[in-house]
Structures are given as C-alpha cells and as structure tokens.
Write a structure and sequence with these properties.
Layout (H helix, E strand, L loop, with lengths): L1 H24 L7 H15 L5 H16 L4 H5 L4 E7 L4 E5 L2 E4 L7 H13 L11 E5 L5 E5 L9 E5 L8 H6 L5 H12 L4 E5 L5 H9 L8 E5 L11 E5 L13 H8 L6 E4 L6 H10 L6 E5 L3 H14 L6 H11 L2 E7 L5 E9 L10 E8 L4 E4 L5 H4 L4 H11 L1
Parallel strand pairs: 7-11, 7-12, 8-9, 8-10, 10-11
Antiparallel strand pairs: 1-2, 1-6, 2-3, 4-5, 5-6, 12-13, 13-14, 14-15
Helix pairs in contact: 1-2, 1-3, 2-3, 7-14, 9-10, 10-12, 11-12
C-alpha cells in the first residue's frame, strides 16, 4: 500500500510538470479544465499504468486542480460535510466536520504550490500577497471567508484558513434539527424578532454566532426593508427587500478602505427598517447603539464574548475605542436602552453548537451596573435546556397576539 501511495504521488508530480510544460510550449496562459483533463489522460495513457480507474481519476483530478483550481483544496471545497479548512504548511491540512477537527491525508506538492493557490485565491478579488504584504483577508467566489499568512510572519510555512460558505440559508428549523435550542426557545426567538427586540448574539470563535444571526434574520417580515453589513458577506436569507453591504480593505497603495462604521452610517440614509451587522469589533458599536435607539428597533448584531454580561462590557469597551467622548454612565445608558435580548452561543467539546443562554436586559436606567435576567439556559450537568418561570418583560408589556400564546410556556 505504501508503494502504491508513492507511485501515485510520483505520477501526480510528474504529470503536473509535463502538462505545465506542454501548456507553456503552446503558450496557453489560461487553459480550461477540459483542456487540462485531456492532457492528463494522454499522460497516463503514455505511461501505460495498470492502476484502477478510481485511482487514475484521482490522479487526473489532482493534476487538473493543481493547474486550474485550488489543488487538494478542491476536494474539500466540494465536500459538503466540511465546514472549515485549515492549512498549516504544505504537508498538514486539517478540516472541521460536524464541529470536530481532523487531519486529512491530502497535501500540496510543495510550498511553492501552496503559495500559488493562495495567490490564485486572493487574485480573484484583486488582492495581492507577498513578503511586503504577507497577510490578507479575502473570499472565494461562493462567499467562503479566507485568511492567508505567509513567511516571514508564518514561521513554519504558509498558513491558509477557509471558512466555507453554507450551501443554503440557516434557519430556526435547522437549529431545532441540530438541537441548538428547543421548541420553547425557538418560539421565543420568533417572537422577539417579530416584536422588534434588539438582539445581541454573543460567543467565541466558531461558536455559531453567524448561523444564529442568520436564523433570526430569516424571521424578519418580508414587508420590512433589511440591510446587512459585514466584513465578508455570510448572511444568506430569502427576503424580497434585502440589501447586502460588505466592507473593503485598503488596496496595495493603502487607500480605498471602507470600514464597517462608514457603511453603517451610510445604511442609516438608506431608509432601513432593520439593520443587521455581522459583527461589531470597534468604534462602530456606538453607531449601532444609536441606530437601535433612534428608530431602528429590531436590529441584530454579534460580538465575541464568553457570557451575556461580558458581551455588554465588550460593547461598552468598543464604544470607548471610538472617537466619541462620552462619560461611562452615558455609554452604559446607551447599551441598556439599545440592547434588549442577549443570546449566548457556545461550541461544546463534542462539537455541537448550542444556545447556552437567552437573557433579557433589565431596563433600569438608574442602575450602576448591567442587570440581566436569564430566560433560557443549557444545563451542562443534566444536558438539557431549562427556562425561568418568571414572565419576561418583553412578553408582559407586548401587544402582539403571539405573546399570549408564548405566555403558556412560562406558566408550565
């Protein structure tokens, strides 16, 4: 078996060199996939190999993807079970499947091929990566988010991370199917979106914040105008009045940058009913809060934090990072007034992603600190969802008919 693996690898490398040489001799600078496949088939026929058909097809795919595609990454990008791809140098390719990391048997021929693939990716969006600009954020044509960093910043070879774009929009039904929440929580989330509560989704990297945000945004009524603002456009919803905005990094000359904050300010002039910001990371937090407090109720955003209370402090800190000079009590008042519901998302050791807490922000403007009332939470010991018996303020004061139906959950 090891001999066969070495033979296959040798054929892949020899085939790549020969096909590239033929293309260069014919001065073909932009070959099609079909042209490369024919040359690969000819190469194998000339070698008169007795390899099984499946292995021959694997060799042809490998050579073809290395020349006109993304090398071994093509196999992973076409695999729907893979949600994230992590390349640690040319010999180590890891993937995330169902929330768990695993090492693949795939690898690049060498560091040079890996660099070529990275350049192919960033070149599609007009970016460049080299020693003078050794790190870059980009995205594939399907929307998948890409981060690349090369030597001298990456000491053990080039590193490439691809978070794949979901094939379909993530909905509340999907969250129930994956047991990220229970029916009572799903009904409550449907209500808070319908009743235009401002929602903050909190969690760590890879916890599923964007998926939860997507599921909530998909519940926004079709009659309302929705504007999304993201670093990399990941929110995918079926909505007839949906405008998607994406920030832009500076070009090679250092100009042309359009940050989230600028897009957020512009969105306020686009007559939005609701604004969804993929993630707040800095000074745009104050603009988001002001939007929530001045006629754009029902807006949503995410933030990196380990608990609902910590997420409010994070928002507070990000406001202080901006250029607005406000005293801390004024900032805290803006946060309390602006955010109604905090959803905490976590990825468990098993790889499953769950909503571990849904909390209501108590509207006490005289309080010295934030007050949160947990409404739903995940009991890690019992491995089940729990809920409070106390009726949330957003239900008690609501005029929506759906509120009466939801009250039954809290009366149980």
């Amino acid at each position: 078996m090891k001999y066969l693996d070495k033979q296959v690898q040798a054929l892949k490398e020899a085939g790549q060199k020969e096909v590239l040489a033929i293309l260069q001799n014919h001065k073909t600078t932009n070959p099609t996939e079909q042209e490369v496949r024919k040359l690969c088939q000819t190469f194998l026929q000339q070698r008169d190999t007795l390899l099984p058909k499946a292995i021959q097809e694997e060799i042809i795919d490998s050579i073809t993807y290395s020349i006109v595609g993304l090398g071994p990454l093509e196999f992973l990008l076409r695999d729907d079970s893979v949600s994230e791809i992590m390349v640690n140098g040319c010999d180590n390719i890891f993937v995330e499947r169902h929330g768990n990391l695993e090492k693949t048997s795939l690898h690049f021929f060498n560091e040079k091929q890996l660099i070529q693939v990275i350049n192919r990716i960033v070149g599609q969006v007009g970016r460049r990566i080299d020693e003078s600009n050794p790190l870059v954020d980009a995205r594939l044509l399907d929307g998948s988010r890409v981060n690349a960093i090369i030597p001298p910043l990456s000491l053990k070879g080039s590193s490439l991370t691809i978070r794949k774009f979901p094939a379909k929009a993530f909905t509340l039904k999907d969250m129930l199917q994956y047991e990220s929440c229970n029916q009572a929580m799903a009904d409550f989330l449907s209500f808070v979106v319908l009743s235009r509560q401002n929602i903050l989704v909190s969690g760590g990297t890879g916890a599923g914040k964007t998926s939860t945000l997507n599921a909530c945004a998909s519940l926004i009524p079709e009659k309302e105008r929705l504007i999304t603002i993201e670093d990399s456009a990941e929110i995918r919803i079926n909505h007839p009045h949906f405008v998607s905005l994406e920030s832009r990094n500076a070009n090679v000359e250092g100009s042309g940058e359009i940050p989230i904050r600028q897009l957020l300010k512009n969105a306020l002039r686009m007559r939005p009913d609701r604004i969804v910001v993929g993630e707040i990371r800095g000074g745009e937090a104050i603009d988001m809060l002001q939007a929530m407090n001045t006629g754009h109720k029902g807006s949503l955003t995410t933030v990196h934090a380990n608990s609902p209370l910590e997420s409010l402090y994070r928002v507070e800190t990000m406001v202080l990072m901006g250029d607005v000079e406000l005293p801390l009590p004024a900032i805290r008042s803006q946060v309390i007034q602006g955010i109604d519901i905090v959803i905490q998302q976590e990825r468990l050791p098993s790889g499953k992603r769950k909503i571990t807490q849904i909390s209501e922000v108590i509207k006490n403007m005289r309080a010295d600190d934030y007050e949160l009332r947990p409404l739903f939470w995940y009991d890690f010991k019992k491995e089940c969802f729990q809920m409070t018996k106390k009726l949330p303020d957003c239900l008690r004061n609501s005029r929506y008919q759906e509120a009466e139906i939801l009250k039954a959950w809290f009366d149980k």
